[in-house]
């Protein structure tokens, strides 16, 4: 009798295990967007617990829940905003946790899961490819048809994952080597430089912007080589892994680059140059920033700030000392962000490019949006409009709530909220003074910005049913 009961229990347990495993497999493939959100939330909770440990702080004390949670969100979402002094608050263990967290968060939840599967099994099944494809092209998260030439074909996902892993390791290693000597020349010991260099390399390539040194970049504000390396690392992280993958295959054949690669690179360069020129003009006479510096330093710092608004988050000056006109310009650049499927946030440069091309085509009276001999389909244009509207809504709501809680100047609140949404990390100083309710609101803003407006929309619409009929057409008056 006991043997039969044990056998029945074992059989029941096996059936339950299979059912749970089947549900999990179906969940990861039928709704990769929701799975990504679940993984990100789980990682945030784990890192909140780790950062709450006394061993994570320099003084071996418990970090308040709001600060630990906010730092975990900022770490996993590669943002760089902080409510504590990153250089003095955290211990070696805490810095190690943050270093690991930003590299995990930079890869993306679905990409990380697929990479682990590739390492373990040395091959990718269809489910793993579909999961990774959701990270390389967010449009695959919705139920409609997707043109595989938009980014990376499904059959190339395995190659892309290898490029992601290798490029992350290689770029961060090269950047760390290049930064080692400038860190030594700034007065740090060779032992300190051994961990400061990789830390800065990770924070720049992942576009996080945390600084492990007291005073941030103050020790390097005239070290143009150090700042140039940081800028290049931020640029490589912000253009996106699909672009890096395309360049690794066809670097010398620009005409054969995918449309996504062309739009990303061209728009990024245009915004970088335009931002630098705008900051140079607006801040040229501001004594609180670089108005009293020589022409070369002023020009360099203007373009450095332009590069950091792409999502880098590093700053030589205090953004709170910018003129309000410059703060508005920086907010606009931060809102756009970097490339799709990158470590940067914002609505993405390709979204801006598609919207600009649609406006131009409408002004010229063209029926379709065309560029570089290709036609951009209407569903991509609709997604671009939705991303813009959803992003603006998130920023507006967060700004209103935090402004009401803190009664702080609107320009400062708007700047920090957009920095949070776009996972940039620049701050006017407001974030470090926020009360706990405002900290939680800003943490939610960071999460929604990192997970992505398209992914959030796809997660909500994952179970939507197809409509097999069409309603009568009626045109409202627009404009």
Automatic annotation (TrEMBL):
<keyword id="KW-0472">Membrane</keyword>
<dbReference type="InterPro" id="IPR003445">
    <property type="entry name" value="Cat_transpt"/>
</dbReference>
<dbReference type="GO" id="GO:0030001">
    <property type="term" value="P:metal ion transport"/>
</dbReference>
<feature type="transmembrane region" description="Helical">
    <location>
        <begin position="438"/>
        <end position="462"/>
    </location>
</feature>
<feature type="transmembrane region" description="Helical">
    <location>
        <begin position="96"/>
        <end position="120"/>
    </location>
</feature>
<feature type="transmembrane region" description="Helical">
    <location>
        <begin position="224"/>
        <end position="247"/>
    </location>
</feature>
<keyword id="KW-0406">Ion transport</keyword>
<feature type="transmembrane region" description="Helical">
    <location>
        <begin position="160"/>
        <end position="181"/>
    </location>
</feature>
<keyword id="KW-1003">Cell membrane</keyword>
<dbReference type="GO" id="GO:0008324">
    <property type="term" value="F:monoatomic cation transmembrane transporter activity"/>
</dbReference>
<dbReference type="GO" id="GO:0005886">
    <property type="term" value="C:plasma membrane"/>
</dbReference>
<protein>
    <submittedName>
        <fullName>TrkH family potassium uptake protein</fullName>
    </submittedName>
</protein>
<feature type="transmembrane region" description="Helical">
    <location>
        <begin position="380"/>
        <end position="401"/>
    </location>
</feature>
<dbReference type="Pfam" id="PF02386">
    <property type="entry name" value="TrkH"/>
</dbReference>
<keyword id="KW-0813">Transport</keyword>
<feature type="transmembrane region" description="Helical">
    <location>
        <begin position="332"/>
        <end position="360"/>
    </location>
</feature>
<feature type="transmembrane region" description="Helical">
    <location>
        <begin position="259"/>
        <end position="282"/>
    </location>
</feature>
<keyword id="KW-1133">Transmembrane helix</keyword>
<feature type="transmembrane region" description="Helical">
    <location>
        <begin position="33"/>
        <end position="53"/>
    </location>
</feature>
<keyword id="KW-0812">Transmembrane</keyword>
């Amino acid at each position: 009798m006991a043997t039969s009961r044990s056998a029945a229990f074992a059989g029941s347990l096996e059936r339950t295990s299979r059912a749970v495993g089947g549900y999990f497999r179906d969940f990861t493939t039928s709704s990769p967007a929701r799975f990504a959100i679940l993984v990100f939330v789980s990682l945030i909770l784990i890192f909140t617990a780790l950062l709450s440990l006394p061993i994570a702080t320099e003084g071996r004390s418990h970090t308040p829940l709001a600060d630990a949670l906010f730092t975990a969100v900022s770490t996993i979402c590669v943002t760089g905003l902080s409510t504590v002094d990153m250089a003095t608050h955290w211990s070696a263990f805490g810095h190690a946790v943050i270093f690991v967290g930003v590299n995990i968060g930079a890869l993306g939840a679905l990409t990380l899961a697929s990479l682990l599967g590739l390492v373990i099994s040395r091959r990718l099944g269809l489910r793993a490819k579909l999961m990774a494809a959701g990270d390389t092209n967010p449009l695959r998260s919705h139920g409609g048809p997707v043109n595989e030439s938009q980014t990376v074909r499904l059959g190339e996902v395995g190659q892309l994952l290898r490029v992601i892993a290798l490029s992350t390791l290689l770029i961060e290693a090269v950047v760390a080597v290049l930064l080692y000597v400038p860190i030594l020349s700034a007065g740090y010991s060779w032992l300190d430089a051994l961990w400061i260099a990789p830390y800065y390399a990770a924070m720049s390539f992942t576009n996080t912007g945390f600084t492990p040194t007291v005073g941030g970049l103050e020790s390097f504000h005239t070290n143009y080589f150090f700042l140039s390396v940081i800028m290049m690392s931020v640029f490589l992280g912000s253009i996106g892994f699909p672009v890096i993958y395309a360049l690794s295959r066809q670097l010398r054949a620009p005409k054969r680059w995918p449309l996504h690669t062309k739009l990303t690179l061209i728009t990024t360069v245009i915004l970088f140059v335009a931002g630098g020129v705008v900051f140079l003009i607006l801040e040229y006479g501001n004594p609180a920033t670089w108005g009293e510096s020589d022409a070369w330093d002023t020009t360099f710092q203007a373009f450095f700030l332009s590069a950091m608004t792409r999502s880098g988050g590093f700053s030589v000056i205090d953004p709170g000392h910018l003129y309000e006109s410059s703060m508005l310009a920086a907010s606009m650049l931060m809102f756009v962000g970097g490339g799709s499927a990158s470590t940067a946030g914002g609505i993405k440069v390709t979204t801006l490019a598609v919207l600009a091309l649609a406006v131009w085509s409408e002004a010229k009276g063209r029926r379709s949006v065309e560029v570089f001999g290709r036609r951009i389909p209407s569903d991509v244009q609709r997604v671009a409009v939705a991303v813009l509207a959803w992003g603006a809504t998130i920023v507006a709501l967060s700004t209103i709530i935090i402004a009401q809680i803190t009664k702080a100047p609107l320009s400062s609140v708007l700047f920090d909220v957009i920095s949070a949404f776009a996972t940039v990390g620049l701050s006017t100083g407001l974030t470090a003074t926020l009360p706990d309710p405002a900290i939680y609101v800003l943490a939610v803003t960071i999460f929604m910005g990192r997970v992505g407006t398209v992914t959030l929309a796809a997660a909500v619409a994952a179970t939507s049913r197809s409509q097999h009929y069409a309603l009568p057409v009626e045109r409202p008056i627009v404009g």
